[in-house]
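Case study.
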Amino acid sequence: MEKPLSIQPYIGRFAPSPTGDLHFGSLVTAVASYLEARHHQGQWHLRIDDLDEQRCIPGKDKELIESLETFGFQWNGQIAYQSKTVPHYRAALEHLKEQGAVYACDCSRKQIQETGVKGIEGPVYPGTCKDKGLSLDGKLAIRVKANKNPLAFFDKRFGLQAQNIKQDVGDFIVYRADGYFAYQLAVVVDDYLAGITHVVRGADLLSSTIRQISLQQMLGQPQLNYFHVPLVLGKDGKKLSKSENGPKVNHQKPIQTLLAAWHYLGQAMPDEAPGTLEDFWAWASSEWHFSAVPREGTLNAAVK
Ligand SMILES: [Zn+2]
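After joint prediction, the assembly is written out as follows.
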């Protein structure tokens, strides 16, 4: 008797921010995430990460959705919006408060820079405000007391990842002084609400995964499976980002553009290009090999 392909359900997602056009880097991530879900006969959800109003461009969410439709992506269920999920972030923060897991912080960026030890993402927050007993009423930033013990997870492409949050980052922000919930908390709550089981996303988020796992633990949520894909680099060798004018991908020839993303993901090219988007996705879903995805980002040939 043949064993079933997968016993654990697979619910994946793609979560672009409406801060610019769909550029090649986000298309690559979307393709990897979509193909992993399809390969596992799972679901794939779409979420608009529009938490940070100041960075979002009005109307870009609609354009992103149209772009994804042009490339033939099909998602399950309703599109989620982070901006509509704020009450759930608040509830999660309350839960952390009840556990005594958070404290308010009134340090300026400059103060932290002066006192902090260099960590993986700038200075390590030294815990200056931990015992000040500042009010948690939302006027100040709120930090979560970082795990003192190292945590680890297995990334599907990057392998075993370990980190000691206390030493490498310090107590980290879950609520910002400007009134927004921090990405680390929001993403954990969003994924939980949608029942996400597998996260496929850009490698720029690899180093923040452990913080998210620690929040999952504090909130009593199951740990997710992670697969980080290499970033597409611009001509300066840095991450191609929407907000830094990464060029919009070619929508006129969607199959060629998808094949470029496919090629970037280390996959073997077809002898003949599929004739329709449907053909492309059917072919790509069966030919997808996650182990061929490179670990290192490379320069995007399309960016010159
Ligand atoms: Zn502080």
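Observations recorded in class. DSSP finds nine helices and twelve strands in the chain. The CA atoms of residues 203 and 228 lie 5 Å apart. We will return to this complex in the next lecture.
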